[in-house]
Amino acid sequence: MATTLEELREHGPAGPAFWRFGRDHRQPLLDAIGNARRDAYLARRRQAAREEQRRREEREAAQREARRPACAGCGQKFTDARWEAIDYTRDWSTRQSHPHLCEGCQDRAVAAQAQAEADERERQEQERLRQEAEEQAAAQKAGGWLSRFRT
Q1: How many other CB atoms sit within 10 Å of the CB of residue 17?
Q2: Which long-range contacts (CB under 8 A, 24 or more apart) does 78-84 make?
Q3: What is the pTM of this model?
Q4: CA–CA dist 91, 38 (Å, integer)
Q5: 70 strand-pairing partners
Q6: Fewest CB atoms less than 10 Å from the CB: which of 43, 68, 138, 150?
Q7: pLDDT tens digits along 48-88
Q8: Residues near 149 by Cβ (< 8 Å), separated by ≥ 6?
Q9: What does the pLDDT look like over 5-44, one tens digit per residue?
Q10: Distance (Å, whole) CA 85 – CA 79
Q11: 49 and 63 Cβ atoms separated by less than 8 Å
Q12: Residue with the larger pLDDT of the pair 43 and 145
């Protein structure tokens, strides 16, 4: 590698003042003293590291998908949002009512549960009204029987 004082004065030590033997142009010092074989080796290492990182990410994604829960009702895999919603390790205060079901099945299960509760309340109300009617009928019958003796 060579240079002259005139080149250094003109371009400075960081400018293209250096001529590496075997090349046809002047270069900055760091480019002129570079090692092409080492640069190629480092580039191959970086590429291999990127490939290894990509393979690792693919493996981790496949393992995550293997752990992804499925709905007990329809068998569909949970979405990321649903999987996060049932993750109790984060916040127990947002506990889901049906953590083993997907959102659609959970909505149907909640609606069915609400309908069953409404049906039960209506059945209890009808039972209460029937008992009141029986008690009134018994009271009228007893009152009618007692009224015969009062007169």
Answers
A1: 21
A2: 78/102, 79/103
A3: 0.46
A4: 52
A5: 77
A6: 150
A7: 999 999 999 999 999 988 888 888 878 888 888 777 777 65
A8: none
A9: 999 999 988 899 988 888 888 988 888 887 778 889 999 9
A10: 10
A11: no
A12: 43
